[in-house]
Design a protein that fits this description.
mainly alpha, Growth Hormone, Chain: A, MFS_dom
């Protein structure tokens, strides 16, 4: 493909990947306003985030088989249509329970973009290029937290929190038009792929039996759940504990997201000299050390607002080393089942993210300790799984290097 085609495809796939980050980050500064308007608590509003993550986790299992059976675009159109309608429903919510329900439906629609985006990377680029492409997508995703909370904070202050969801619907409609006219089809429909429950479960089991997929999905999913603890807990930590405004919180979130932008670019350089599994190990060790310092410092009262921002920044630097390489390694063995593999991997990541988000809400104690404690626990578990499973994944990769793809 030409450089222009490459750029357009990356831009559209990146835009698809930003639907969920925007949906998560853009309304964060509005938590206090939502709680006040709906006559509820911030911890109850946090459950709307948990509901969104549960919806993403469940919805991806639905789209995987559909993408393999009907091709990439038609399920994508349907999902984004549901997302747009549900976003308007969120804006019109008159109770916290209605907001939670609409957020779940919004996620079920929006996750089509996540699954289709990853499957299209596997369709449109050679296996040797996928880690680099995922790094570019991580870069596009990382830019959205710089924009979304800042814009969301100003919009909430100027027009109310409802306006955020109207804007999300409009953005997604714009992306849908781009997909219609400029995104290649990727893998076409496969009539041999059955949608009967038994056949679908069989496809999922085929994917799950692959050691390389299992190990790197577990490692990447659990380690990559750490930012969800930060996303869930940071509105309360900064706006309630440190008493910053919606606008200032948006700028803090934007500054911290710079860490997510820099590390994927460093990953590009590292991939020239190191294997993806080596980079994953490097990132996890770094995050574990920083996480230990972060938890110790919060518990001992070492950090004020600025100190906490600094250690959070250092911790988030590691995410751009783990996530793209784990995604690339988990999908590498698959061609025919790329949709199902992408769905299973994404479902696991978001399911763990939902648990992590819920844990921060349940452990809420008016300090930053639940947030940083859960973040650090994710990386510790991730690195333990890496060391326990990396040998079997490497052995499988060596044996399968001459075997046909699934």
């Amino acid at each position: 493909m030409t450089r222009k085609q490459y750029f357009i495809i990356i831009l559209i796939l990146g835009s698809l990947s930003t639907i969920s980050p925007f949906s998560i980050d853009m309304y964060l500064p509005g938590f206090p306003a939502i709680a006040e308007d709906l006559n509820t608590t911030i911890s109850k509003v946090q459950l709307s985030l948990t509901a969104y993550l549960i919806g993403i986790s469940a919805g991806q299992l639905l789209y995987g088989p559909l993408l393999d059976r009907f091709g990439r675009k038609y399920p994508l159109y349907a999902g984004l249509g549901v997302y747009i309608v549900a976003s308007i429903g969120c804006a019109l919510a008159h109770s916290s329970d209605m907001l939670i329900a609409m957020r779940f439906l919004q996620a079920v629609g929006g996750c089509a973009g996540m699954v289709a985006g990853q499957a299209l990377v596997r369709d449109l680029f050679p296996v040797t290029e996928t880690a680099k492409v995922f790094s570019w997508l991580i870069l596009v995703i990382a830019v959205s937290p710089m924009i979304a909370p800042t814009v969301g904070g100003y919009m909430t202050a100027a027009f109310g929190w409802h306006s955020v969801f109207y804007v999300l619907a409009a953005i997604t409609l714009f992306i849908l038009v781009g997909i219609l006219f400029a995104l290649p089809q990727g893998k076409g429909p496969d009539p041999t792929m059955s949608l009967k429950p038994r056949a679908v479960l069989g496809n999922f089991l085929t994917v799950l039996r692959n050691p390389q997929f299992l190990v790197y999905t577990l490692v990447g999913g659990i380690a990559s759940a750490a930012p969800f603890a930060y996303i869930s807990g940071s509105p309360d930590v900064f706006m309630n504990i440190y008493k910053v405004s919606e606008q200032e919180y948006g700028w803090i979130f934007a500054v911290l997201s710079i860490a997510m932008i820099g590390s994927p670019q460093f990953n590009h350089l590292l991939l020239k000299k190191l294997r993806s599994d080596q980079i994953i190990k490097m990132g996890l060790v770094f995050q574990t050390v920083v996480g230990a310092l972060m938890v110790t410092g919060v518990y001992a009262g070492w950090y004020g607002k600025t100190g906490l921002i600094v250690v959070l920044f250092l911790f988030l630097l590691g995410q751009g080393l783990t996530a793209p390489n784990a995604s690339a390694l988990s999908l590498a063995p698959f061609s025919k089942f790329a949709g199902s593999a992408s769905a299973l991997g994404g479902s696991f990541r978001m399911g763990i993210g939902a648990l992590v988000s819920g844990a921060v809400s349940v452990l809420h104690n008016n300090t930053a300790l639940p947030m940083v404690g859960v973040m650090t626990s994710c990386t510790i578990i991730g690195i333990l799984i890496y060391f326990m499973g990396q040998r079997s994944a490497t052995n499988y990769r060596n044996l399968a290097s001459t075997a046909p793809e699934l």
